[in-house]
Amino acid sequence: VRAVAPPDRSSAPSALRADSFKGAGDFGPRVERAAVAALKAALVAQLPEGGLRDDPATLAAFGHDESNTLFAFPETTAQVQAIVRACMAHGVPVTPVGARSGKSGGSLPVRGGLSLCLEKLDHILLVDDQNLIAVAQAGVVLGALHAAVEAKGLFYAPDPNSLDWCTLGGNVAENAGGPRALKYGVTRDHVIGLEWVLPSGEAIRLGRRVHKGVTGYDLLGLFVGSEGTLGVATEVTVKLLPLPKVVLTALVLFQQVEQAAQASTRLLQSQLLPRCLELLDDVALAAVKGAGLQLPQASQAVLLIELDGPTEDSVLAEAQTLEAVCRAEGALEVRVARDETQRAGLWAVRKSVSGALKLFEGRKVSEDVVVPRARLGEAIARFKALGAAARLTVATYGHAGDGNLHTNVLYSKAEQKPEVDALVAAIAREAVALGGTLTGEHGIGVAKRHLLTLEQGPGLIAVQKSVKAALDPLGLFNPGKIFP
Amino acid sequence: VRAVAPPDRSSAPSALRADSFKGAGDFGPRVERAAVAALKAALVAQLPEGGLRDDPATLAAFGHDESNTLFAFPETTAQVQAIVRACMAHGVPVTPVGARSGKSGGSLPVRGGLSLCLEKLDHILLVDDQNLIAVAQAGVVLGALHAAVEAKGLFYAPDPNSLDWCTLGGNVAENAGGPRALKYGVTRDHVIGLEWVLPSGEAIRLGRRVHKGVTGYDLLGLFVGSEGTLGVATEVTVKLLPLPKVVLTALVLFQQVEQAAQASTRLLQSQLLPRCLELLDDVALAAVKGAGLQLPQASQAVLLIELDGPTEDSVLAEAQTLEAVCRAEGALEVRVARDETQRAGLWAVRKSVSGALKLFEGRKVSEDVVVPRARLGEAIARFKALGAAARLTVATYGHAGDGNLHTNVLYSKAEQKPEVDALVAAIAREAVALGGTLTGEHGIGVAKRHLLTLEQGPGLIAVQKSVKAALDPLGLFNPGKIFP
Hints:
Two copies of one chain form a homodimer.
Chain A: H1 33-43, E1 52-53, H2 56-61, E2 69-72, H3 77-90, E3 94-97, E4 113-117, E5 124-128, E6 133-137, H4 142-150, E7 154-155, H5 168-174, H6 181-184, E8 191-197, E9 203-207, H7 219-223, E10 232-239, E11 241-242, E12 246-254, H8 257-268, E13 276-280, H9 282-287, E14 301-309, H10 312-328, E15 333-336, H11 340-361, E16 363-366, H12 376-389, E17 393-399, E18 404-411, H13 417-433, H14 452-455, H15 458-471
Parallel strand pairs in A: 2-4, 3-4
Antiparallel strand pairs in A: 1-2, 5-6, 6-10, 7-11, 8-9, 8-10, 12-14, 12-15, 13-14, 13-17, 16-18, 17-18
Helix pairs in contact in A: 1-3, 8-10, 8-12, 12-13
């Protein structure tokens, strides 16, 4: 099975650029130009034509303008191994790159060196409707996997916003989530096997092709979400579910965001487990006004809720509970999508929020904190108050059901960046104080590494670093990420 | 909240004894008696009265008769830390012990030394129906957690057979499963936070109290299922689900085990996801004959299937599909439990299989392999053929839906053990050849470490050992387990 071609990359939101993180701390010495030249000479014969690039067009496309950066596009696991081994031999940092749709700068070569681009490993190898598993190479676009799996009546749940261009390997590196994580879990919950190239260049197979197994340590668990710092996936085996039979999508309008937050908390306490429970506040709604959503003036917040289940009757029964709970919290209106077009329309609005917020004032920083579900309303109010005190606009939207808020700080002038960064840090501090975590699905990367100690103690960080040192003793695999 | 008292330990199946594994290879030198004496002298003042024992009654109760073994019963995390630190200082191996209900010998002190018994850490600290989480100490009995959680209308899914006496800490160490793993996953899928004492004696908190989060490496994933070799959990935070509203339990009778296996495969291909799908073959049925199950002579295999869902109608609709699929595969009869008593009766039969098989010929070795779901029938036939060739009885039962078979080799005389071990190895080899794995939920421990290389290559084993060495450089934390 050949995956569909990835969509035009220009449709992706502009990738994070290395210079966005100029202020984010010391990444260690940049690699010497001579070492990169020696690496290039050693590798060029081992890769297919065009498999090694440092031309200006590639540099521009990947958002870099440094001359000590090299881009490799291997087509086989053996080529990935050769590249990693050569990088280690030449002391050149190697940074795995998927579709560059990440939100924490994980694929940025902050010390220069080789960018290991997996996009040519783009074959779906197996969709097995007997055993309910799929096997795909790391560069397969998630949307292509969804399509291949759904064509057989099966379901792969993770659905990050970027699913039409992000890759499975990137999902593994970042442990990607998405709206459906509420009911179905994140990437880690679905990956059962990996082919993995270690920082040593050795390729190992780990995990299994069956749904269950506890042989040895769960290195799968360790590698998924390791943000490209412990090696790189070349092939991924995932478990599949039967495609849910009935899906119902509803948009619930509220006057105030506090009511929407409260309704979200109550819904999860009423024995319902929607597959998605998304929130958009007033700023997010204002940003997507042009996206085709007609709302009464009074509605300053919405919940986008999706239920799935085995029969129409069972889903409709849950929808009645949903409506009753939302009405009790003051919902103005409950709109149910009556067909696939209406459903797609509601999701198009939700998916356009991230881009629309960027255009709203010209610039933004996107947060990704998680707070306990029952403190959602309190968290949103505190974040807005922090924004007001800093005279910056805070927009909140995201996976309310998980307590995972994409709190965005909007601004217009580059000079405001220090105040923006201070506000982002304050929001992170507040989320941790509320009993939450720094990042629900974006990862730490370079974007949040200076905040890591807000959440994790020195003992926990030391253990992680000892694991990193055991697997990557030279410290050349995606350096400068996660740890401050 | 105080947990209910653990049930009388004498009701537990007799624990694996160290001498069961006399032939399982070299565990390294047994600890010197003098080192244990020095450790005892150092620790006695740091633990509460009765917190350190080496009396004959304790030795007998724990199935050991070695004089260089010491049992510690800490009541606080600080005491656990003191014990671990003292063991490291005195060069004495330390082996975490839960309820000794494990199936792979993980809690056996194969080199002697200190057995770290967590049973006094038995408090349920929080059941939060606002945020759908629970926090409990490692020594809490799983059944007590179930009761506390279900009293609030919530659900903690993992349900190993030993749930009335096994502990949450043991579940974490072994990544325990159970019948409901088919729909709801295993322990790893539910643990979101841990307090963990490292081999260094340092206590760290990892994970979180919210359902979602990707800050740093997923050490939770690594530690869950590490079989007591990377440290020990003292406190566990789990996520909870709403208690499923409607549950339907059915017993389906087949003439032949091949039909039952085929029906199991077909059920999972018919868009159904039962929460449990268990199989018992002719030998297992013969063993439990006295347990109150009346079956026609012609029925030589059964499936025990449990569906859950949001409404009675939706579950009944799925039950109709279930019946149609099973009838098409030749089911003789589909019995649906009509009330809670009948339901409990069916499960009592299923739960009595393990013990009944032990009594059947006097001795048994229990396998725990997993095979791809679609090859279940083929696997059972091959295992039985291997048994026939070795003139040993093979019983097969277990989690058919997961492909996780508790294949048991029955025998009567100690002299048969070498042939039994050879048959067990042959079954393991066959499972791996079929695309499966050595263990679905019991772990490797000492029971299967000599088989590990059947499934895992040297590269994968080396990575695991490097992680182990990074965290336990002295190699004193539960030595002799997992790795050959």
